[in-house]
Amino acid sequence: MENNQLIKYFSLQRQIFGICPNTKEIFRLSDCNIYLKKKPEPDWLQKVESAQNRIDLASERLVEKESGIREKAREKGRKEADKKVKKIDKIFNPLKLNPDDSKVIFHPVDYIVFNGKKDGAMKNIILIDGKKTNKNDKQLQRSIDKVIEKENYEWVTLKVEEDGKITEE
How many helices (H) and strands (E) does the chain have? Predict the structure, then answer.
């Protein structure tokens, strides 16, 4: 019977609430630490919880630091890659074009460059084609040049929807 009274006592304690005068948070009486004169020495559970909190904070700081280091490394890698690409790029870099703005099509021209697209402000469209030695290819290049010079072309944007339907914009 003594166990039942102890259980009832703690059950009642869980139903009594208070408001902390400092934080204004609601707490259960059974959760509060009551002491007079001086704060008691921490027990083993408080020591474990305190150590766990320190570990959690250190872990968060480590994750933040690692994230910063990774971002710096990514940026450094991008810069290094750009330097290497500039050394081997004989087409886009000399023309001050971003290779990411280009599409390889090979026929009737080698590349079409949507200049400035990656930066979100497309300035113009550039057709790039290597020097041709074949008579038919030279004729095709001249034909494209004439069309552009005379502005004898029409620009149509087609959009392919997710359901496969094609619409004109």
Answer: 3, 7
Give me 135's structure tokens: 């008579």
Are residues 152 and 106 part of one domain? yes
pLDDT along the chain (169 residues), means of 10: 74 80 84 73 86 97 96 94 83 86 88 89 87 86 89 87 89
Structure-block tokens of residue 111: 């590349």
Cα–Cα separations (whole angstroms), residue 135 to 110, 131, 138, 142, 145: 17, 11, 5, 11, 15
Query: Is residue 93 in some structural domain?
Result: no
Total domain count for the chain?
3
Is the previous residue joined to 108 through a cis bond, with omega within 30 degrees of 0? yes
